[in-house]
UniProtKB/TrEMBL annotation, chain A:
It comes from Bradyrhizobium stylosanthis. This is Amino acid/amide ABC transporter membrane protein 1 (HAAT family). It comes from the Bacteria. GO terms for cellular component: plasma membrane. It is found in: Cell membrane.
From TrEMBL, chain B:
It comes from Bradyrhizobium stylosanthis. GO terms for cellular component: plasma membrane. This is Amino acid/amide ABC transporter membrane protein 2 (HAAT family). Keywords: Cell membrane, Membrane, Transmembrane, Transmembrane helix. It comes from the Bacteria. Pfam families: BPD_transp_2.
């Protein structure tokens, strides 16, 4: 074993980590897209966004593991369920607070975070659960990739393309984009803002549901699982520029690489810490987000 | 109430509070009072910056640093909390500066600021969990029992001592609140919270003023965490750190009212009594139910009583009140980014 052999192995691990980072980036981009959509259109931040994903993961777990529903039947049902939850969240909590100070909206979604976490604790207990589906590992040369990650990446891309097509090709999508540009004027143009807000919330929920279907393939479910990817989603959205879809997309991949490469050298948690340090540095360089136009 | 009457009321109230444990000794009730005083101090620390529109959800991180650094220094280096607490406060202050400076220098306000600070408390939680070899991770951490001098180790067995310490710390928080309230910095910060550009044009050093109040707030919050750790002698990442603790601080401050010195204290009394009643009411079998009801009440409260209990009460008591300042009318206005 010379130095050269050590370097060879290191390179392969490095490449594997880089590719795994790209695969992780897909799911993170999906999460960031959902949060960005809500922020851009309704101008509220769902602090409980990752907890909606958690509920979706439980839905998947119970349908697949407990009731024996096929994964591919359970996934659309889960997406529908979380979409309904998103619409309900808007209808019950956000809509009464639309004119309230932003801190009250934040706190109310923070309250929903408490509710969802403790609901999961009460209903499902604090045990870690997983689907028990062990997807094969794809060997590519000396590198190993899990099908679960590959599948998640592809599904996340498909989801994002679907959202893009919806936003650009349909009347409702166009109205959503218009509202994100000017909230006041669209009501005068004959667009029913209440309806658009509900649709946007459902869409944001659906994206959380899709993310739940993909994350449940790779991670165990427990009531506090939202805390492990919630903060990173917020950082991605801020770095990409809140409401900026493309910025969020790029930032998701940058963060995923940092987490994956950081995880190569130690635990995944340290990857998060590195990502946060990187974020602080980036704030000095591009304070208004990655793709901010200089004014 | 005139100035002298107010002073007399404070004096009588304080004398009653100091005398209380010598008259009434029920240990459980004293325990609840100590908790209320420590958390009141934490909530007051948060509201120091919260009242100026600097809504931080990162204070769970500062509190966690205060608690964990103090305990780690004691267990691993045998450093007395008398030295450990200032070090932990300095660590929290340094982190506040590192995160605060770019935020304030580059005008990261509103939703952006909330999300950055939210991530900060999430990351501190991750670090505590990641360093589980030292901190015990999510299982919690216990400072070693002192074998020698109890005073040097800041460990006391009787509740009365702790009650008096907590009372002193709480009073210190209230005094600092009033000191800021009467300082020039308050006017500068109010101007900043209403319009940053106008304040800057009027000669206010926006970044420096915001940094000063953030530093003060972070230092006090870390002290609250350290005191909590010394009193409870057991800390977990979830009870002293993370997003939940940060949200709890904001909620209590809003419940009590942000713009009155006793607001956060009233918030602490209400939230802790509520949580404690729910905990006992549901018993140990129904884990999670108390938090579920707590969360639902929180949401309902925000929707139906947004001004805070003490704030609304004071509004009622003073019908001929002067025209409120703009930043009070708007409660805490988070500026929209880009405007």
């Amino acid at each position: 074993m010379g130095m050269q052999a050590f370097l060879d192995i290191f390179d392969i691990y490095l490449l594997e980590a880089v590719i795994n980072g790209i695969l992780l980036g897909g799911v993170l981009a999906l999460l960031a897209l959902g949060l960005n959509l809500i922020f851009g259109v309704i101008d509220v931040t769902w602090i409980c966004y990752a907890e909606l994903v958690m509920i979706g993961m439980y839905a998947m777990y119970f349908m697949v593991q407990y009731y024996g529903v096929s994964y591919f039947v359970a996934a659309p049902l889960t997406i529908l369920l979380v979409a309904i939850l998103g619409a309900l969240l808007h209808y019950l909590v956000i809509a009464p607070l639309l004119t309230a100070p932003p801190i009250n909206q934040l706190l109310a979604t923070g309250g929903v975070l408490f509710v969802l976490q403790s609901f999961a604790t009460v209903a499902f207990g604090i045990d870690f659960r997983n689907l028990g589906i062990r997807l094969p590992v794809l060997a590519f040369g000396d590198m190993n990739f899990s099908y679960a990650r590959l599948l998640s990446f592809l599904a996340a891309l498909v989801g994002m393309v679907a959202v893009y097509l919806f936003m650009t090709r349909t009347f409702t999508g166009t109205a959503i984009r218009a509202i994100s540009q000017d909230r006041q004027i669209m009501a005068l143009m004959g667009v029913d803002t209440k309806r658009i807000y509900i649709i946007t919330s459902a869409l944001g929920g659906a994206l959380a549901g899709l993310a739940a279907c993909l994350l449940v393939l790779q991670y165990d479910v427990h009531p506090f699982v939202g805390l492990s990817f919630g903060p990173i989603t917020f950082l991605i959205c801020v770095l990409g520029g809140l409401g900026n879809f493309i910025g969020g997309f790029i930032a998701a991949f940058v963060f995923a690489e940092i987490i994956s490469l950081g995880g190569l050298f130690s635990d995944l948690e340290w990857g998060y810490v590195l990502a946060f340090a990187f974020f602080i540095v980036m704030m000095f360089i591009r304070p208004a987000g990655l793709l901010a136009r200089r004014r | 109430m005139n100035g002298q009457g107010r002073l007399a009321a404070w004096g009588i109230g304080l004398a009653a509070l100091v005398a209380l444990p010598f008259v009434y000794r029920d240990p459980y009730h004293l325990h609840i009072l100590v908790l209320i005083l420590i958390w009141s101090f934490a909530y007051t620390s948060w509201s120091m910056m919260g009242r100026f529109g600097l809504v931080s959800l990162g204070h769970g991180g500062f509190m966690g640093i205060g608690a964990y650094v103090t305990a780690l220094l004691w267990n691993h280096l045998g450093l007395s909390p008398w030295i450990g607490i200032p070090i932990s406060m300095a660590a929290a202050g340094a982190l506040a500066m590192i995160v605060g400076y770019p935020c304030f220098r580059f005008r990261i306000t509103g939703h952006y600021f909330v999300l950055v600070t939210l991530a900060l408390s999430g990351i501190v939680l991750q670090v505590i969990t990641a360093t589980r070899d030292y901190t015990g991770g999510s299982l919690g951490y216990t400072p070693n029992r002192a074998t020698g001098n109890k005073l040097l180790a800041l460990q006391f067995d009787d509740k009365i001592t702790w009650y008096l310490i907590a009372l002193g710390v709480w009073l210190f928080g209230i005094v600092v609140w009033h000191w800021v309230d009467r300082s020039m910095a308050r006017y500068a910060l109010e101007a900043i919270s209403e319009d940053e550009d106008a304040a800057a044009a009027a000669g206010v050093d926006v970044t420096a003023e915001k940094l000063k109040i953030t530093l003060l707030s972070a230092l006090m919050t870390a002290l609250a965490g350290a005191i909590y750790c010394q009193y409870q002698m057991f800390i977990t990442p979830d009870t002293v750190s993370g997003i939940a603790v940060s949200l709890q601080m904001v909620f209590a401050a809003i419940v009590g009212g942000l713009f009155v010195s006793l607001g956060p204290t009233v918030g602490a009394v209400i939230t802790i009594l509520l949580a404690e009643t729910l905990r006992i009411g549901f018993g140990t079998k129904a884990v999670g139910w108390d938090n579920l009801v707590y969360g639902v009440l929180l949401v309902l409260f925000i929707i139906f009583l947004p001004k805070g209990i003490l704030g609304s009460l004071l509004d009622r008591l003073k019908p001929q009140r002067k025209v409120p300042r703009a930043h009070e009318q708007e409660a805490v206005q988070i500026a929209r980014p880009g405007t």
